[in-house]
Amino acid sequence: MSNDKKLEFVMLANEIEKEQDKLQEKKDRLTALMLELGVDTYAQDLNTLAVYKIIKPSGTFVYYKDIDYKRTALEGERGGTVLSKKEAEEAGFSLKK
Q: pTM above 0.90?
């Protein structure tokens, strides 16, 4: 393997590690906000009109979260992350622009 490829590999690995650290900070902040807002809280993205709901997940394989969210599908998606449009509308959100 050439030294150029090794240097590129190390550079990319470092960039990915830094991004993972930033992403973990965002995940930690998101979790803190969800805990502060509480389970069964709804919020809407005013740009996409997607509706998010903070939930208590039942579990994900090996990794279990104490709190998480689900949202409605965006235009072009087959489904959101399991928050039905009907539930969002029943919670008082408009999903039409």
A: no
| CB-based contact 70:55 (threshold 8 Å) | yes
CB atoms within 10 A of CB 34: 19
Over residues 80-97, the pLDDT tens digits come to 567 888 998 999 989 887
Cβ-based neighbours of 53, under 8 Å, separated by 6 or more: 40, 41, 42, 69, 70, 71, 83, 87, 88, 91
State which H helix or E strand residue 64 sits in: none
Give the integer Cα–Cα distance in Å for 67 and 36.
11
The residues, ordered by sequence, that sit 6+ positions from 94 with a Cβ below 8 Å of its Cβ are 49
Q: Are residues 46 and 90 in the same domain?
A: yes
Q: DSSP letter for 63, please.
A: B
* Number of domains into which the chain is organized: 2
Instruction: Judge if 42 and 31 occupy the same domain.
Output: no
